[in-house]
Design the sequence.
């Protein structure tokens, strides 16, 4: 069954935010520009959190919001959830390396990179703020590294890219 979702056009493409049981579960890029079919209605808490997510994403992209305040439900292992929690703690306009997060988590940089790539809620869980030790690293969202650079520039972290 399809989860309730909301759609939003952003400077980095059209995104779809999905929620269940009053928590955001996924953010993905919409593959086609056509308007999608309406997702099934959810409970009141789910509809409210989707509305808040759209409002907060709009505020983020308009420069009025630096930290998201939404209930999140990260699917995945305990390690995936721990990596996402560390990523979510990186302040707006700042970055960390895969190695720094690995050191905090007691794991390898490669494992952190894999977990970043599997982040189910990019932008809101800002995996674009995680860089390689000697470069940008990757980005699993639409547009790849170009989208990562765009998000970092939006946050004023572009000085890191020069």
Sequence:
């Amino acid at each position: 069954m399809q989860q309730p979702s909301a759609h939003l056009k952003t400077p980095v493409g059209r995104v779809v935010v999905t929620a269940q049981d009053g928590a955001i579960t996924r953010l993905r890029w919409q593959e086609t520009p056509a308007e999608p079919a309406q997702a099934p209605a959810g409970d009141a808490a789910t509809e409210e959190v989707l509305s808040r997510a759209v409002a907060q994403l709009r505020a983020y992209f308009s420069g009025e919001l630096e930290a998201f305040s939404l209930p999140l439900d990260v699917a995945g292992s305990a390690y995936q959830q721990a990596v996402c929690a560390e990523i979510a703690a990186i302040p707006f306009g700042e970055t960390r390396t895969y190695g720094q997060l690995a050191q905090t988590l007691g794991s390898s940089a490669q494992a952190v990179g894999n977990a970043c790539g599997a982040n189910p809620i990019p932008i809101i869980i800002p995996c674009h703020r995680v860089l390689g030790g000697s470069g940008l690293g990757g980005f699993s969202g639409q547009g790849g590294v170009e989208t990562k650079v765009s998000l970092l520039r939006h946050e004023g972290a572009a000085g890191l890219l020069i």
Q: What stands out?
A: The two ends are 46 Å apart (CA to CA).
